[in-house]
Design goal:
Helix 6 packs antiparallel against helix 7, helix 6 runs parallel beside helix 8 and helix 7 packs antiparallel against helix 8. This protein has ten helices and no strands. The chain is mainly α and about 290 residues long.
């Protein structure tokens, strides 16, 4: 009954996906914070094992589900009613219910942002096979973007599964056919890899991280090689504009690297939503 209603009522579908997006956004907050810590602990453990050193002090269990959510100030566990996306933050006034320590506004903003992006996906694709996979890619991009902002890192544990999923979906021509998808994955990786190598050869410095290569390969696999020029152009323009603005208005050190992953993610997501229209505008602008 519910599935039938969702199929025939776009408004209901968008509303349900919006609520699901809020809950997923709450989980993404956990992923964004904990996944880099889990990776760092894993690297340290591997180094100790390789060097045959005794175990370190961070051997307690730490993953996406344990330990449970708690206040970072007083360590009080967060109850279920205190963990309702956005609503709990508003009810608590942005403070811990026990020690009144401030809770970062970033948490409800990520939840709301995830819900809005999810609702747009539901509006764009409707009740069809494209929607759930587009949602999965959207949620992955949000996690990748904020991890890159925090740590200047795009974890392979997210990008590589998305790359393989895009290639798999091309077998069914869900977003692109296999021919365009395979070429897109290869061209996406090699294009930024080539820029990286040329920049390093010319300056002796690394201009971007290897995760950026893989992220563009993800979009090539999902959308096909035809959208790569558009994605590179959009991400470069937005990245240049924001980077210059930060240097001028926020006195950002020009020598300090700025993560490129969020710009790639935003450009690729826009290409997935409005790719045909944007590509047409781009081709008309260059006279093709």
């Amino acid at each position: 009954m519910l599935l039938t209603s969702l199929q025939h009522s776009p408004a209901l579908l968008i509303g349900v996906i919006f609520i699901i997006g809020l809950m997923v956004g709450s989980f993404l907050n956990v992923v964004i914070y904990r996944l880099p810590i889990m990776m760092q602990r894993g690297w340290r453990k591997e180094c100790r094992e390789f060097l045959e050193l005794p175990p370190g002090e961070d051997q307690e269990i730490f993953n996406l589900s344990f330990p449970g959510s708690h206040c970072p100030s007083c360590k009080t566990p967060i109850n279920a009613y205190q963990n309702i996306p956005v609503i709990s933050y508003l009810i608590l006034g942005g403070k811990c219910g026990v020690c009144a320590a401030p809770i970062s506004l970033r948490y409800p903003l990520i939840e709301a942002f995830t819900a809005i992006c999810s609702a747009i996906i539901a509006w764009r694709f409707g009740y069809g096979p494209e929607m759930p996979f587009a949602l999965l890619l959207t949620w992955s991009l949000i996690a990748l973007s904020f991890i890159d902002i925090d740590q200047q890192l795009l974890p392979d544990s997210i990008t590589l599964p998305m790359l393989w999923l895009g290639l798999f979906l091309s077998l069914f021509s869900l977003y692109a056919n296999s021919h365009a998808s395979i070429i897109g994955a290869v061209a996406g990786y090699l294009s930024l890899w080539s820029v990286y190598q040329l920049f390093k050869l010319a300056t002796g410095k690394e201009g971007m991280g290897h995760g950026d290569f893989k992220l563009l390969a993800v979009f090539g696999a999902w959308l096909g090689w035809q959208y790569l020029p558009l994605i590179i152009l959009l991400s470069s323009l937005v990245g240049a504009f924001i980077g210059i603005s930060m240097i001028i208005f926020r006195k950002h050190d020009a020598r300090q690297p700025i993560p490129f992953g969020p710009y790639l993610a935003a450009a690729g997501w826009l290409a997935m939503i409005w790719g045909n229209d944007l590509n047409r505008l781009y081709l008309n602008a260059v006279g093709l």
